[in-house]
Amino acid sequence: MTTAHPAALIERVPGRAWTVRLTGYADRSATVSCTTAACRMPPRSKDLAALRAFAAQHAAAHAKAATVRPNAWCHCGSTRCEAHPDTRTHCAGAVTLILRHDPTVGRVWTIEEVCAACAPLIPHTTVVARAARPRRTVEQPAATVPAPTRAGVPGGFSSPDTAPADGAPAPGRRSGRRPPRPQRRRTGQR
Length: 190
Hints:
alpha+beta, 2 helices
């Protein structure tokens, strides 16, 4: 009888990612955009410092509001680990939520669900949250299924007259494997 672990029954889902982007224009104005269509963004403005602060706060708000899903696939792995092309790894470990922002460019903030193996390899990241570990529960014993009552013909290979009397256990089945035969030497070989 096999029992399935409750965590194995949870279906894996793709890792999420949100990107907040500051886009500049030739007239020295800029806009802030978010990959979540429902987010409200400020209008185009020439106050770049205010827009940059808004973008950073907006990315932090996404990171704070997101609950890390322990059954998520690594978002980095789904993009074939493009975020760390020089270092190859196998996606593994707990799911973490990272905030990625390169201060030298200063225009893009990305929040992603990635695995613990990829998170330290991605440059300019901060781990914001980790998936909650599932509570370990004491495994409940499997429901006891009563043993089937012995039929008059144990195993179906003998007659009821040869069934063990007085409740003695039936003889076990023999293994189909034979013991190894000793090697014989041929005459003339050393």
